[in-house]
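Complex record, two chains
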Amino acid sequence: SQTIHQWPATLVQPVGSPLSLECTVEGTSNPNLYWYRQAAGRGLQLLFYSVGIGQISSEVPQNLSASRPQDRQFILSSKKLLLSDSGFYLCAWGRRQDSPLHFGNGTRLTVT
Amino acid sequence: AQTVTQSQPEMSVQEAETVTLSCTYDTSENNYYLFWYKQPPSRQMILVIRQEAYKQQNATENRFSVNFQKAAKSFSLKISDSQLGDTAMYFCAFMSPSGNTPLVFGKGTRLSVIA
């Protein structure tokens, strides 16, 4: 069966510090991978998605970036965090572009 | 671009009663997929139910069923025999199989089941 791992579960970082959130998927190959952000317990905002190694599509221009160094690894990064980067970050995977997404447990990021 | 609208920010229902959550969407495509996700206080996103637009029959999963009205672009979720564990945020989502458009979510409805 397929599983998705996302870490860390919680993170408190000062403004201006770097960020690295990691997500890995097991039990499948060539998944579509996604990073979403959820602010204030409301809707999900798509940040990045990837349909293959090295292929990253950005939905929102900001100080975040994403990389996919391996088939089942998706990393969300920032060189300098802003207060507005606080939120709940969710990684997700799907088999094809018409399949439901399966989500990780999320990372609660607080920028102080 | 596709949009998904959930017009009920919050709802409540008595335990064992039935509740319906509304969702409308906007698309010019004929073939697409619709989903309902549940996000309990643990904040994990859980797939509740899925509907393919080319299927006329409404999807059901145990106590969860949908009322899919393609012409009206409406996709409501009915929860029967509500349980305390159903308390969660519920998100309606749209996916187009064409192009590279990922899942588009509504803003969610916060459902509280009251004992």
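Note: Chain B touches chain A through 23 residues (CB under 8 Å).
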